[in-house]
């Protein structure tokens, strides 16, 4: 009888946990909606402030007034601002991001072609930042106050201070032009040529990862130093656990929430920084797409890219919120 009660209690607790997670998911989605609306509204408004007439750009300088009026009516440019924004937003929420004014290609097709290149660079940069930053942070924390700690923190300060576009040009000059190890520009399809795609993405990812390595190592070192001076760690030392075991088994587990927060912020920052990095390496990714759209006053392309970027950032933040409970059950 007691076993049945225990099973029923476990089932009830599991159902409560599922309801809490569903409630958290719904609440985060409701909080994300105003962010999405605000970001797209601001960008839509700023694009309208850009000098020049898109109808003239499409029809040519010698176009007649009748032709210009026809183009404005065709693309809805003669309608009030709020009507234009509302129409675009309604279509976007249904998955239709309109068509490019310049090429006529569906914006969703352009994004589907460019997004994998950007995702590969950001994903590889995150892996490099974690693979290098975590060991450096743990090493600095274990050697707190020694020359090792000072050396790691100096490198971290340099990583934060050095602009990633300058580092990108240095990497091109050294590894591509001088040593001829890696390609300087361009990209390849990850599905068709995975090795070439990784070779093309490595230098951009390294340029992006420098700041990430510095951020991960600094934040991890700070969290672990506080943890290593706690009563809990002194108790583990008294039980005979080695410093390495304490760092690996208990240290990383206890600072997992802080580390996840750093990784989430890094992913969002790297996504924004690809605009500059892709321009330096001439990579036709999301950054290049939005720059090209802005220069040609191709409003649907710019709006579509911004909409997609905001959705990605919201998804990353939402995933991090859900993972907090997995890493630390005390987080509700």
Automatic annotation (TrEMBL):
PROSITE patterns: ABC_TM1 (PS50928). InterPro entries: BPD_transp_1_N (IPR045621), MetI-like (IPR000515), MetI-like_sf (IPR035906). SUPFAM superfamilies: MetI-like (SSF161098). It holds the Pfam family BPD_transp_1. It is found in: Cell membrane. GO terms for biological process: transmembrane transport. The chain crosses the membrane at residues 29-47, 119-139, 151-177, 197-214, 270-295, 301-327. GO terms for cellular component: plasma membrane. It is a multi-pass membrane protein. Coiled coil: none annotated. Keywords: Cell membrane, Membrane, Transmembrane, Transmembrane helix, Transport. Residues 115-324 form the ABC transmembrane type-1 domain. Belongs to the binding-protein-dependent transport system permease family. This is Binding-protein-dependent transport systems inner membrane component. The lineage of its organism: Bacteria, Pseudomonadati, Pseudomonadota, Betaproteobacteria, Burkholderiales.
């Amino acid at each position: 009888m007691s076993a049945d009660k225990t099973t029923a209690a476990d089932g009830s607790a599991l159902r409560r946990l599922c309801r809490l997670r569903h409630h958290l998911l719904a609440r985060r989605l409701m909080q994300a909606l105003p962010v999405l609306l605000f970001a797209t509204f601001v960008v839509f408004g700023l694009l309208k402030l850009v000098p020049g007439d898109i109808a003239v750009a499409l029809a040519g300088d010698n176009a007649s007034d009748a032709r210009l009026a026809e183009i404005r009516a065709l693309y809805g440019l003669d309608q009030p601002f709020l009507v234009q924004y509302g129409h675009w937003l309604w279509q976007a929420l249904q998955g239709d991001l309109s068509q490019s004014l310049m090429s006529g290609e569906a914006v969703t097709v352009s994004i589907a072609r460019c997004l994998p290149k950007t995702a590969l660079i950001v994903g590889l940069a995150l892996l490099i930042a974690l693979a290098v930053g975590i060991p450096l942070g743990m090493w600095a924390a274990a050697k707190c106050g020694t020359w090792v700690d000072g050396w790691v923190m100096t490198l971290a300060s340099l990583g934060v201070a050095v602009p990633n576009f300058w580092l990108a040009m240095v990497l091109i000059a050294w590894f591509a032009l001088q040593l001829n190890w890696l390609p300087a520009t361009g990209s390849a399809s990850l599905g068709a040529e995975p090795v070439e795609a990784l070779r093309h993405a490595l230098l951009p990812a390294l340029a992006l990862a420098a700041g990430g390595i510095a951020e991960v190592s600094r934040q991890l070192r700070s969290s672990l130093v506080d943890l290593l001076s706690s009563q809990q760690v002194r108790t583990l030392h008294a039980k005979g656990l080695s410093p390495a075991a304490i760092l690996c088994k208990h240290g990383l587990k206890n600072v997992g929430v802080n580390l996840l927060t750093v990784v989430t912020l890094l992913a969002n920052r790297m996504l924004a920084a690809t605009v500059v990095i892709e321009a330096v390496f001439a990579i036709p990714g999301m950054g290049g797409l939005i720059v090209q759209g802005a220069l040609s006053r191709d409003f649907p392309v710019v709006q579509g890219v911004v909409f997609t970027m905001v959705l990605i950032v919201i998804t990353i933040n939402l995933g991090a919120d859900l993972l907090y409970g997995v890493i630390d059950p005390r987080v509700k």
